[in-house]
Amino acid sequence: GNSVTQMEGPVTLSEEAFLTINCTYTATGYPSLFWYVQYPGEGLQLLLKATKADDKGSNKGFEATYRKETTSFHLEKGSVQVSDSAVYFCALSDRGGNKLVFGAGTILRVKS
Amino acid sequence: DSGVTQTPKHLITATGQRVTLRCSPRSGDLSVYWYQQSLDQGLQFLIQYYNGEERAKGNILERFSAQQFPDLHSELNLSSLELGDSALYFCASSFGLAGGETQYFGPGTRLLVL
What we know:
Largest sheet of chain A: 6 strands, mixed
Largest interface: A-B, 25 and 29 residues
Number of strands of chain A: 12
Structural class of chain A: mainly beta
Shape of chain A: globular
Distance between the termini of chain A: 41 Å
Oligomer: heterodimer
Radius of gyration of chain A: 13 Å
Number of helices of chain B: 0
Number of strands of chain B: 11
Largest sheet of chain B: 7 strands, mixed
Structural class of chain B: mainly beta
Shape of chain B: globular
C-alpha cells in the first residue's frame, strides 16, 4: 500500500539557519504530495502541495519539489524563524480518491 | 481559521461509554474526512463521506461509525470505548473527491478515556 517516510526529529535549528526535512513516498501511480504544518494546540494547515512530477510547491518561504525519479518531496526553507517551530507532516493522496496518507511528522524547534 | 468546526474541543469519558463527535465542513464543501492522531499510530485516515454517502474506509474499528447528514455536517460515533481510543480526532473537508484536492482541517476533538 501507499506509505510516506519522513526524517525523524526533533530538528533543532538556530534562527536564520537553512532547513531541510526529508520525505520519501511509496505509491502506485502518480500521487499528489502535500506538506501540512501543525502548530501547538492547533489543527493541521496546508503548507504547500504538488500534484504532478517536477511541480514545485511554495508558500511562506517554504519550497518542495515533486521528484518522481527519487520518489521524494523534501521540504526546504532558506532562513527559519522562531515562529516556524511546529510539527511538519508530509502526506500523499492517490488518484483513486483523496484520503491522505501521512508520514510520522517531524518536530522542528527554532532557537533565537 | 480553516472554516471547519468541530465540537466538543475536549471530551473526557470512561471505558465502555459512547461518545459523538461533530464536524461542520467549510461552506460549499461536499466531502468530509475523519482522521485519528495518536502517539503510537500517528495520523490515520478513518472514513470519508461525500454528499451523504460513504466513499472510503480506512483503519476504522467496528466500534466506530460515522454519518453525514443532509446539511453536510458529519458525526463520528465511538462506542464501547477503550483506553487506547484516547486520541485527537480531526475532521477535514474538501469540495470534491479528486485526488490532490486540498483538505481543510478542523481544530480537532481531544478524547481522553479513563
